[in-house]
């Protein structure tokens, strides 16, 4: 199986809440669409500093991490991000890796959206089928 990529949209979760509360317009929500590498070995969402700034994400702390090349790094952890893939979404923290050019979609957001990698097709699929499982308002 080769590398799997997914088109996702990231939104500042604080902005989403403000829009729901009527404190800002929906079109003012800071968001960015990116092509993310699906990395089931990564714990959470990994973004670069530019994406963090575009989303206006607050930093809630630092975390020691071991990277794929076995090197160690201290990374910023953001306030929540809303992650969208097709008709699914979830919330998670993002790890800011300063020297990366690739957004990584890790295990926590994949699980939150009930997604897995189909190794035969080399694509994301719903763990329990492709029917939307989200909330109905």
Which short descriptors sum up this protein?
single chain, 137 residues, alpha+beta, Cathepsin D, subunit A, domain 1, 5-stranded mixed β-sheet, 4-stranded mixed β-sheet, 3 helices, globular
CATH top level class name:
Mainly Beta
Mean pLDDT over the full residue set: 91
Domains (count): 1
* Share in helix: 10-25%
Structural class label:
alpha+beta
Number of helices: 3
Q: CATH homologous superfamily name?
A: Acid Proteases
Q: Can you summarize the main beta sheet? A: 5 strands, mixed
The run of helices and strands is EHEEHEEEEEEHEE
Radius of gyration of CA atoms, rounded to a whole number: 15 Å
Overall geometry comes to globular
Describe the structure.
The protein has helices spanning 13-20, 49-55, 107-112; strands at 5-12, 31-38, 45-47, 59-66, 72-78, 81-85, 88-92, 94-96, 103-105, 115-118, 123-126. It has 137 residues and is an alpha+beta fold. The strands form three sheets. It has a five-stranded mixed sheet with strand order 7-6-1-2-9. Strands 3-8-5-4 form a four-stranded mixed sheet. The model has no long low-confidence stretch (mean pLDDT 91). It has a single domain (5-126), classed as Acid Proteases (Cathepsin D, subunit A, domain 1, Beta Barrel), CATH 2.40.70.
């Amino acid at each position: 199986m080769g590398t799997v990529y997914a088109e996702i949209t990231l939104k500042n979760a604080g902005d989403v809440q403000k829009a729901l509360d009527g404190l800002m317009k929906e079109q003012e929500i800071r968001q960015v669409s990116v092509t993310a590498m699906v990395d089931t070995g990564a714990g959470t969402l990994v973004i670069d500093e530019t994406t963090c700034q575009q989303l206006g994400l607050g930093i809630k702390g630092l975390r020691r991490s071991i990277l794929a090349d076995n090197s160690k790094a201290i990374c910023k952890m953001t306030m929540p991000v809303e992650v969208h893939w097709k008709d699914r979404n979830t919330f998670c923290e993002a790890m800011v890796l300063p020297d990366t050019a690739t957004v990584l979609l890790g295990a926590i957001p994949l699980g939150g959206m009930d997604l897995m990698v189909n190794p035969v097709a080399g694509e994301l699929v719903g763990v329990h089928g492709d029917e939307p499982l989200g909330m109905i308002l």
